[in-house]
DNA sequence: CACCCAGCGATTGCCAACAATCCTGCCGAC
DNA sequence: GTCGGCAGGATTGTTGGCAATCGCTGGGTG
């Protein structure tokens, strides 16, 4: 979008936020970001503007920017939007996926199964995101992919919290296995249904109270 | 978002673009915008940044900003995303609409019918947008409403082009009448189906070659 | 003791000038 | 006559500094 410096700042901040190094509510002081990233204040400022536009960061006039706090209600609303959009992507992917992509998808599913078996939840959470990215690529629908990507970026924290619940990864993996199968079978209807079902399950899980700790 | 000046610039530009005063491809020269709007260059610059983030404007480094040209293919892809999102909004609206809102919706439908009867297509096109806004309000789903609003903003030109086709407004009005009926009847299923059907019709119409002139 | 308010450091917001880049028109060479 | 390239003007991008605002601290007062 902007200068290389701005892109750098954007990348660093986005990663720091999604990795949790800068948790929701964290104050983004411009001078600190300048020192951290090593670019000019203008670049930092523009990068923050971009993240505000994406909904990852909130800015209050004269009071600075903070990493946006996404409540459980908002997380549900965001996922409600994702339900049909991921369905759309899954359907398009089933229609358009190449053999090479299909193989890659199945291999990825294997990696995910291994991660669940070994109990590496951090990794599994990241692999889920990559799976969605693979489906979005295969769908060749940049607009839906962009929308879904932005929505998902706001949910990283909730998704990770979700994967911490006992039994949840197994359920999740089952749904995603169905999704991958439907896509590699080139069955658009089944793929769309699998994607929607899976995310509806996410909504249900989000609606239930978290076993440990509150919504934050 | 930003200073009042920036908001002013954003509002003026957005309106100019959606009204067609600045057609797709139009070059947004910063100095001109400063003279036109009467705010500082920084404010214009930030406003343009915001519009770029919304997808209304395209910026090429060192070459300035232009009103984004949305091809027919992109318009279809955008509408494909709108199909299920408007469906979601329609369903939520049917669940949550108040009596006052329902009356307002029906009154609006009356205005639309009158506009079609009188052949005022410009007005009808605008009324359609307002109808969607009313539905979005009633749905109380700010996230979906925001997504749909941004998508729709990119389509104003195509939607107007569409309404110029002979017979199209009648078809459109019929579909929207069904939608309004389902919502005021508090029938979520039917509302969702009506919204989706209507937009699928839009996709079909967009796919057919335009009778006069090309895709632009 | 609690409350209020003035002063101060920290932080953000804005502007004007400067630097970098691009487009246009013109000149010369082949 | 056409192509290459080189100023000159126009436009965008960036930097540094200044103004505005905020939150906090400390002193004064009821």
Short structural description:
2 copies of one chain form a homodimer. With 216 residues, chain A is mainly α. Chain A contains 10 helices and 3 strands; from the N terminus they run H-E-H-H-E-E-H-H-H-H-H-H-H.
List keywords for this structure.
homodimer, 216 residues, mainly alpha, Arc Repressor Mutant, subunit A, Four Helix Bundle (Hemerythrin (Met), subunit A), 10 helices, 5% strand, DNA-binding
Characterise the protein shown here:
The structure is a homodimer of 216-residue chains. With 216 residues, the first copy, chain A, is mainly α. Chain A has two domains: 4-67, Arc Repressor Mutant, subunit A (Orthogonal Bundle); 72-207, GntR ligand-binding domain-like (Four Helix Bundle (Hemerythrin (Met), subunit A)). Chain A has ten helices and three strands. A three-stranded antiparallel beta sheet of chain A has the order 1-3-2. In chain A, strand 2 (57-60) and strand 3 form a beta hairpin. In chain A, helix 1 (4-19) crosses helix 3 (41-54) and helix 4 (72-96) runs antiparallel to helix 7. Chain A binds chain B through residues 1-3, 46, 49-50, 52-54, 59, 61, 74, 77-78, 80-81, 83-85, 87-88, 141-144, 147, and chain B through 1-3, 46, 49-50, 52-54, 59, 61, 74, 77-78, 80-81, 83-85, 87-88, 141-144, 147. The structure holds a DNA duplex (30 and 30 nucleotides).
């Amino acid at each position: 979008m902007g200068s290389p410096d701005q892109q750098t700042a954007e990348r660093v901040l986005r990663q720091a936020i999604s990795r949790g190094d800068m948790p929701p509510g964290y104050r983004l002081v411009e001078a600190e970001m300048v020192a951290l990233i090593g670019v000019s204040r203008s670049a930092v400022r523009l990068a923050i503007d971009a993240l505000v536009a994406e909904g990852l960061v909130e800015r209050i006039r004269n009071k600075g920017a903070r990493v946006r706090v996404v409540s459980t209600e908002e997380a549900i609303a965001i996922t409600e939007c994702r339900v049909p959009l991921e369905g759309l992507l899954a359907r398009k992917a089933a229609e358009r996926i190449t053999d090479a992509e299909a193989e890659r998808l199945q291999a990825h599913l294997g990696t995910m199964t291994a991660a669940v078996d070994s109990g590496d939840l951090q990794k599994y959470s990241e692999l889920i995101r990559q799976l969605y990215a693979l489906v979005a690529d295969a769908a060749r629908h940049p607009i839906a992919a962009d929308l879904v990507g932005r929505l998902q970026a706001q949910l990283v924290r909730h998704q990770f919290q979700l994967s911490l619940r006992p039994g949840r990864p197994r359920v999740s993996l089952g749904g995603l296995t169905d999704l991958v199968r439907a896509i590699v079978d080139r069955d658009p209807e089944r793929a769309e249904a699998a994607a929607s079902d899976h995310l509806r399950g996410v909504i249900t899980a989000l609606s239930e109270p978290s076993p440990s700790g509150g919504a934050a």
